[in-house]
């Protein structure tokens, strides 16, 4: 791509113009592993966390572009290494820590750290896996309060329910998985190491877990295969549940698919050119659920209309010509957060 072509990439065939408002270097100086906007509570869409190897930062982007506040930072112990995270829905009927919004952080040691926004401190440490295994995926339920799942290198996915001041293990799914997410009010989706996406009905422990012997065990055969990727050169690297019956899947070859969870049918397909297979970018979905954003290996940010499948915008900042690790929306479709190494780039639609 020559210089003239690069200049043309500043918003083509679109009404959206993105302006770089702020560049922030993470205080840890470490590469950002993931950016996690809070999508579980509509009143907290302005909250976003960044996770690096030894530190978690939580930002308030309510006045995006004018006032970006870092109001909480959590540093790991020297021997601890963070790998993943997820927001956990608050219990609005609770009277103590259950009424708090929680950020769960998974570590290489197999521990899960629960961080409280209300108290600005760690409130629990869970031994999530057997010694010698790590937590590589976490997900919080959007419908069931203080309910979350952890994905471990020990080949098990564990489902937790926080009661009072302790988290109780209520379910175990025996499937070697790398990504986990809740779907609707009774299902959980697992991306397996065998390049499949499976759906498990776990309603028995979500609705009436106190009446059964815990933890409830689920086998691989209990899951329904939604996606099976036959191409061994490409793997499922990221997915997000869009609505109760839709999921967006991103593969390392740059293929993105919108899939109906109920029947496994592909509804929309996209292909991201020059996608970084070795270091794939995590995509983001706007709070309204209409658009998703992703970046390729050249740092070109691309926005797509999900219902129509059309590309609505693409742009590249002259200072950001490299593969992006994360691209997410802020508190609306008019704000974007992009990470490259230890740098956060904040864009606002003007």
Task: Describe the protein in words.
With 350 residues, this protein is mostly beta strands. Helices cover 3% and strands 51% of the residues. The chain is built from two helices and 29 strands. It has helices at residues 3-8, 203-206, and strands at 18-25, 32-37, 47-52, 55-63, 67-75, 82-88, 102-107, 111-116, 121-127, 135-140, 147-152, 156-163, 166-174, 177-183, 187-192, 196-201, 216-218, 224-228, 236-243, 246-251, 255-260, 266-271, 284-285, 291-295, 301-305, 311-315, 326-329, 335-340, 343-349. A five-stranded mixed beta sheet has the order 10-11-12-13-17, with no helix packed on it. Strands 1-29-28-27 form a four-stranded antiparallel beta sheet, with no helix packed on it. Strand 10 and strand 11 form a beta hairpin. The longest helix is centred in the N-terminal third of the chain and has 6 residues, at 3-8. The chain is globular, with a radius of gyration of 20 Å. The relative contact order is 0.14. InterPro entries: PcG_WD-repeat, WD40/YVTN_repeat-like_dom_sf, WD40_repeat_dom_sf. The chain crosses the membrane at residues 166-184.
Record the SSE blueprint:
Blueprint: H1 3-8, E1 18-25, E2 32-37, E3 47-52, E4 55-63, E5 67-75, E6 82-88, E7 102-107, E8 111-116, E9 121-127, E10 135-140, E11 147-152, E12 156-163, E13 166-174, E14 177-183, E15 187-192, E16 196-201, H2 203-206, E17 216-218, E18 224-228, E19 236-243, E20 246-251, E21 255-260, E22 266-271, E23 284-285, E24 291-295, E25 301-305, E26 311-315, E27 326-329, E28 335-340, E29 343-349
Parallel strand pairs: 13-17
Antiparallel strand pairs: 1-29, 2-3, 3-4, 4-5, 6-7, 7-8, 8-9, 10-11, 11-12, 12-13, 14-15, 15-16, 16-18, 19-20, 20-21, 21-22, 23-24, 24-25, 25-26, 27-28, 28-29
Keywords: Membrane, Repeat, Transcription, Transcription regulation, Transmembrane, Transmembrane helix, WD repeat
Transmembrane segments: 166-184
């Amino acid at each position: 791509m020559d210089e003239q072509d690069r200049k043309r990439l500043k918003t083509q065939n679109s009404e959206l113009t993105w302006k770089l408002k702020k560049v922030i270097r993470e205080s840890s100086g470490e590469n950002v592993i993931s950016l996690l906007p809070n999508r579980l509570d509509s009143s907290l869409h302005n909250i976003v966390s960044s996770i690096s190897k030894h530190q978690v930062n939580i930002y308030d982007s309510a006045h995006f572009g004018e006032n970006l506040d870092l109001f909480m930072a959590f540093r790991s112990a020297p021997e601890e290494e963070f790998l993943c995270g997820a927001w956990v829905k608050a219990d609005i009927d609770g009277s103590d820590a259950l009424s708090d919004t929680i950020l769960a952080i998974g570590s290489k040691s197999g521990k899960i750290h629960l961080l409280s926004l209300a108290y600005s401190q760690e409130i629990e440490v869970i031994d999530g896996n057997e010694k010698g295994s790590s937590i590589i995926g976490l997900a919080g339920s959007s419908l069931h309060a203080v309910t979350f799942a952890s994905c471990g290198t020990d080949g098990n996915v564990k489902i937790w329910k926080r009661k009072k001041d302790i988290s109780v293990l209520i379910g175990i799914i025996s499937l070697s998985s790398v990504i986990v997410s809740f779907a609707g009010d009774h299902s959980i989706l697992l991306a397996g190491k065998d390049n499949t996406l499976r759906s498990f009905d776990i309603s028995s422990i979500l609705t009436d877990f106190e009446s059964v012997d815990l933890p409830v065990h689920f086998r691989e055969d209990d899951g329904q295969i939604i996606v099976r990727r036959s191409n061994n050169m490409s793997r499922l690297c990221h997915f997000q549940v869009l609505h109760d019956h839709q999921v967006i899947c991103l593969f390392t070859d740059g293929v993105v698919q919108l899939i109906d969870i109920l029947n496994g049918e592909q509804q929309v397909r996209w292909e991201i050119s020059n996608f970084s297979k070795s270091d794939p970018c995590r995509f983001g979905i706007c709070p309204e659920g209409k658009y998703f954003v992703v970046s390729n290996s050249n740092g070109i940010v691309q926005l797509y209309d999900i219902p129509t499948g059309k590309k609505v915008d693409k742009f590249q900042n002259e200072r950001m010509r490299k593969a992006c690790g994360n691209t997410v929306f802020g508190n609306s479709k008019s704000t974007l957060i992009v990470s490259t190494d230890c740098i956060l780039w904040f864009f606002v639609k003007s």
